[in-house]
Amino acid sequence: MALDRKTGTAPREFKIIGTRPARPDGIDKVTGRARFGADMSAPGMLVGRVLRSPHAHARIKSIDSSAAEALSGVHAVVTRADFPAPGEDVADILDNCMAGEKALYDGHAVAAVAASSAAVARQALKLIKVEYEPLPHVTDVDAAMAVDAPALHEGRANETVPDGHSPNVMARHAFGHGDIEAGLAQADRVLERSYRTEATHQGYIEPHACLASMGADGQADLWCCTQGHYMVRNTCAAILGITQGQLRVTASEIGGGFGGKTTVFLEPVALMLAKKTGRPVKMVMSRAEVLRATGPTSSSSVDIRLGMTSDGRITAGFAELRYQGGAYPGAPVDMGAMSAFAPYDLENVRTIGWDVVTNRPKAAAYRAPGAPMAAFAVESAIDELARDLGLDPLEVRLKNAAREGTRASYGPTYPAIGLEATLRTARDHPHWSEPLGPNQGRGVACGFWFNFGGDTCVSLNITPDGTVNLSEGNPDIGGSRASMSMMAAEELGIPYDKVRTVIADTGSLGQNEVTDGSRVTFAVGLATIEAARAAKREMCKRAAQVWGIDEEAVIWEDGAARPSGPNAGEHPPMTLADIAAIASNTGGPIAGHYEINAEGAGVSFATHMVDTEVDPDTGAVTILRYTVFQDAGKAVHPSYVEGQFQGGAVQGIGWALNEEYIYDDNGILQNAGFLDYRIPVASDLPMIDAVILEIPNPGHPYGVRGVGETSIVPPLAAIANAVSAATGTRMSDLPMSPPKVLAAIQAR
Amino acid sequence: MSKIHVTTTINGDPVDFLCDPGETLLDVLRDRLGMTGSKEGCGTGDCGACSVTVEGRLVCSCLMLGAEAEGREIATIEGMADGETLHPLQRKFIEHAALQCGICTPGILVAAKSLLERNPDPTEEETRYWLAGNLCRCTGYDKIIRAVMDAAKDMREAS
Amino acid sequence: MQYHAPTSVDDALRLLAAGNGNCQILAGGTDLLVRLRSEMGDEPESILDIKRIEELRTITPEAGGWRIGAAVSGAEMGEHPALVADWPGVVEAMNLIGSTQIQGRATLAGNLCNASPAADSVPAMVAAGAMARIAGPDGARDIPVSEVPTGPGRTSLGKAEFITSIYLPPRPEGGGDAYLRFTPRSEMDIAVVGCGVALTLDGAGICISARVSLGAVGPVVMLVEAGAGALVGTEVDDAALDALAAACSDAASPIDDKRGTVAFRTHVAGVLARRVASIAKTRAGGAS
């Protein structure tokens, strides 16, 4: 999929790409008409609610639901016994949705009811008698790696884990090249430091919600808020033992996901309740359930060894990363280990990542999963060495920056990338030279995300009046429908408002990878462009038919079919609307479609710059100024690209300063609400300045790179570096809540 | 448990409904009246997604009983536009891309409207502090604040 | 569960008495509805909404001070210029609670009777010397606000009693009050430490009386006599403020919890006291 270049290497002139039209779902969202997960109802609907373990770790000895079932208004109770034995690929997911032998974390689902009202459902839950045998638990990642730590599972470690480790250690990942010890020996300064981050939650404002119904013939319908309704279809079908064709999933508007809605929690349970009751069942999580029992990030414990010459060249970089992924294997430590040193051109680099289980909810993706914690450690270490050596932190990064042709620390060789551009732009930006006042400090950090492609289907259909209906299969979490319409309109040469993009249900298209990996504008966009090209070829064929000339003699330009040259004859152009009007008479309705497992997603690099002020008497940190410099390849809709930069930066601010999962000594979550799980509020923040750079991605026809995830990778270190500068200390433990900052100041 | 019959006014229309004593106004709006524009993000008054005004006063509808609506004037997001004509705040939100997923948007619009009714020329700081009770996780608030202040400017010039 | 909305204090008292201790008062509902939803403990048998009792909804000047009805919201207090002018510390404390939406509903009496050790309005009310008027089967009685909370979530009120108003005394000549709290975010948080100071300066700028009150550093709000002692007789200069800070850190007896540590709260109690006293001094007309 070569990048389009009209003439030589000069980039294409776009008419619509790069402008800022209104998004198609805008009016629905500002009037309250848009329907999110909990906004759907059905006649005869029952309310479903989940009973959750009050123990961090316990054997489930028995469940007696007879009293609940006898309660008037209760239609069904579901436990693990209702589900068929799962295949290996969904076994952990099912166990997470409904506990089997053991409850593995505070909040783990153990049973569910469907009742005629929320009040009856709540009462019914109280009547379910569960006999638990509490077991010792562990929530800390390092404690869980101790050989005598309480074990969650036995014998599930994979072959990468050497003998002699705790059964909680599930996998060991290793990346890199070169000789670390030799590299460190060449350094003028060597830093060895450990860093810790706490678990955080994606914090989407919309709790999980779904409405399920299943007929006696096994056909099922599911409405849910999700980042991937095809994933929901496939997972639920596997769990319930039905075919993917029997289950039709419709994605509602989604009130935030950030990775946390790329898996299922309520959906299989709602379907099973619908099956047992023969009625539609609606299930909505409370905020407490979202925090206790969906998919937060990993907490991490990272050791860094970094060597630098006195003029700023990194001679060796080593990181050992330990992440806990909750109660099941799969912490994103592999991605942390791969991304940690990705911005740098290193001769000697090695990263080891340990995947550890603990009695916490199963971790799900959170915007560049695994990368922020790794970047926190590496970027803090680079900053510390740079300062020790009296060097400029941006110049040090420039000196070591990866560029086109660099062999990445995780293996591949980079094509054209934008890291140096972001660093130079940052260095030359007025923010960098703005003077600072007392108790103020400035920090910078770089970040990276791979970005992904994946399975994608798009169907582009033209109506008789020349409107274009674009069906795609990726829930819109950031304004992507506008970008798809823009790309289709650009490619077809028609006005933006002639294209209507809808997210089609799972009965309409074959398979689509979830909305993750910053993949949608890249992969769905690519497929949209190809589908539009297919439609154009068909329309040219129709024009040729009308004109009585060869297909090859017709081209598409500026929204119309035209004869390709004087030899093709004199024929007035036929616009898309003209051809659509006669489609029926020239063979039938016109469409274009495209299916691909997209590759060629371009990586996106960023540099963040932040000024903080620290109150030396209380440790309170104020963010004074924040600028994001990130490479978007080609910004289809600049407002939404800026929005991704700003949103990711602010999530990073929360992660750096205030957000954390707090467990007590019994492994019970202490802050399962927005009061004490503290995400940034409007008054905590300044404007977030967003500078978009465009170094085109050769793998996309317009040069698009995914941008959604990179923006959460640099903030943790950028802010830690700023606070460290403001206080004359080194902050290596997140979140940098006021007591920690104050303690660091007092210990100076 | 017997239900309470409540007679009230919502967005200028007379409305009556039956509700349980313990049902919140948010429950009533969403589940009994089908007005799903107000959202439940937390149920504890910490996120503002359920914001409505009662007798012109900005409140969280999740912290008010449905029964309390008796004889009072309620205004929700559904009443913000005037037929086909969007309120300037609604227009500016779309123009400034001040929404991404849109779940917090109804609550923020209701809150911002309440702000501009009291203070037609708020500073950035005043706007941020007024909206501190409305959580947004997608936008980082930047474009929201710009949209509110731009709408305020338009509304001042129009009056 | 039943819902009642009486229109007179007498009707409310009758319902309370009949409720036999299972009746919850509803003013703003910003604590009660959260408790109901959390399903901690049993649902009350009835909810008694006091907002239809007209006399509880007014702010009335009385004997040079202010009688604030128990159903008056923080937002209404903030919109009352004369009240704000007399007791800015009490009003700002009340208006720090939660968000704009919360302030549209929350009340002084509700904040007081919820009896959280970290309640924001309580240290300011205590510093101001506020009185709570309690209606009960034997008539009305007035007690200092500080005598209402007896422990986290517990008050000294009888089962058939409820607060009908809070009285703020006349602001003394040369008096000023202020309230500050420490929270990790700029808004929306429960106070990690709260401090209210009300002081009076004479014509020469000497402090002749002071009340210093701390919240969130003990099971109930704390009146710090030694803190007041550090200010009285001084010009509230740096030396006096240092002594005040030390007295407050000394008096604080906080716990470690998810919102703060003992060490942090102890230290910040002193830091806040110093800052609050400076603001109160400025409001009292003292040199800043």
Which SSEs are present, and which pair or pack?
The complex is a heterotrimer of chains A (748), B (159) and C (288).
Chain A: H1 26-31, E1 46-52, E2 58-64, H2 66-70, E3 74-78, H3 88-97, E4 102-103, E5 109-115, H4 118-127, E6 129-134, H5 141-145, E7 169-177, H6 180-185, E8 189-197, E9 209-214, E10 220-224, H7 229-240, E11 247-251, H8 267-277, E12 281-284, H9 287-293, E13 299-308, E14 314-324, H10 333-339, E15 349-356, H11 371-388, H12 393-400, H13 419-428, H14 430-433, E16 440-449, E17 454-462, E18 468-472, H15 480-492, E19 499-503, H16 520-547, E20 554-557, E21 560-563, E22 574-575, H17 576-581, E23 591-598, E24 604-614, E25 621-631, H18 638-657, E26 688-693, H19 715-727, H20 738-746
Parallel strand pairs in A: 1-12, 10-11, 14-15, 18-19, 25-26
Antiparallel strand pairs in A: 1-5, 2-4, 2-6, 3-5, 7-15, 8-13, 9-10, 9-12, 13-14, 16-24, 17-18, 17-23, 20-21, 21-22, 24-25
Chain B: E1 4-10, E2 13-19, H1 25-32, E3 51-54, E4 57-60, E5 73-75, H2 88-95, H3 105-118, H4 124-130, H5 142-158
Parallel strand pairs in B: 1-5
Antiparallel strand pairs in B: 1-2, 3-4, 3-5
Helix pairs in contact in B: 2-5
Chain C: E1 2-4, H1 9-19, E2 23-26, H2 32-38, E3 46-49, E4 59-62, E5 65-69, H3 74-78, H4 81-86, H5 88-94, H6 100-103, H7 108-114, H8 121-128, E6 131-136, E7 139-144, E8 149-151, E9 154-155, E10 162-168, E11 175-182, E12 193-201, E13 207-215, E14 222-223, H9 225-231, H10 238-251, H11 262-283
Parallel strand pairs in C: 1-3, 2-3
Antiparallel strand pairs in C: 4-5, 5-10, 6-7, 6-10, 8-9, 11-12, 12-13, 13-14
Helix pairs in contact in C: 5-8, 9-10, 10-11
Written overview of the protein:
Chain B: InterPro entries: 2Fe-2S-bd, 2Fe-2S-bd_dom_sf, 2Fe-2S_ferredoxin-like_sf, 2Fe-2S_ferredoxin-type, 2Fe2S_fd_BS, Beta-grasp_dom_sf, Diverse_Oxidoreductases. Chain B: Keywords: 2Fe-2S, Iron, Iron-sulfur, Metal-binding, Oxidoreductase. Chain B: Residues 4-80 form the 2Fe-2S ferredoxin-type domain. Chain B: Its EC number is 1.2.7.4. Chain B: This is Carbon monoxide dehydrogenase small chain. The complex is a heterotrimer of chains A (748), B (159) and C (288). In chain A, 28% of the residues lie in helices and 24% in strands. Chain A is built from 20 helices and 26 strands. In chain A, helix 7 (229-240) crosses helix 8 (267-277). Helices cover 34% and strands 16% of the residues of chain B. Chain B contains five helices and five strands. Chain B has a five-stranded mixed beta sheet with strand order 2-1-5-3-4, with helices on both faces. In chain B, strand 1 (4-10) and strand 2 (13-19) form a beta hairpin. Chain B is globular, with a radius of gyration of 16 Å. Chain C is an alpha+beta fold. Helix content of chain C is 34%, strand content 25%. Chain C is built from eleven helices and 14 strands. Chain C has helices spanning 9-19, 32-38, 74-78, 81-86, 88-94, 100-103, 108-114, 121-128, 225-231, 238-251, 262-283, and strands spanning 2-4, 23-26, 46-49, 59-62, 65-69, 131-136, 139-144, 149-151, 154-155, 162-168, 175-182, 193-201, 207-215, 222-223. In chain C, strands 4-5-10-6-7 form a five-stranded antiparallel beta sheet, with helices on one face. In chain C, strands 11-12-13-14 form a four-stranded antiparallel beta sheet, with helices on both faces. The longest helix of chain C has 22 residues, at 262-283. Chain C is globular and about 55 Å long. The mean pLDDT of chain C is 96. Chains in contact: A-B, A-C, B-C. Chains A and B meet through helix 1 and helix 18 of A and helix 2, helix 3, helix 4 and helix 5 of B.
